[in-house]
Amino acid sequence: MFCYDGDTCYVTINNEKTKLRLLALDTPEISKPKCTKERILAIKARDFLNDLILDANQIKFITEYKKDFFGRTLAFIIIDGINTSELLVRNNLGVVYKKGHKKDWCN
What we know:
- The chain has 2 helices and 6 strands; from the N terminus they run E-E-E-H-E-E-E-H.
- By secondary structure, the protein is of the alpha+beta class.
- It has one domain: CATH 2.40.50.90.
- Strands 1, 2, 3, 4, 5 and 6 form a 6-stranded mixed beta sheet that branches.
- The N and C termini lie far apart (32 Å).
- The model has no long low-confidence stretch (mean pLDDT 95).
């Protein structure tokens, strides 16, 4: 498992690569940042999440296997009993996702 950015990860399930979108979370964009500050924050969020994964004793997924607009499976990732979406928000690396509202990471 690895994460492309703070809210999109790749896992292999039954020998099939699956793209996950973390629920209740919005993080800065790596692929199309609006400014340098957003890109720097996006890399911090991604690295924070990937470090958690590397150091994990246990990783669980909570999902109903619903997909988003981009075909990503919506899920919570729980690492060593901690909801990673909540942890990223607490560490100022993401915000709670609100449909139709995109945070401006450049201000």
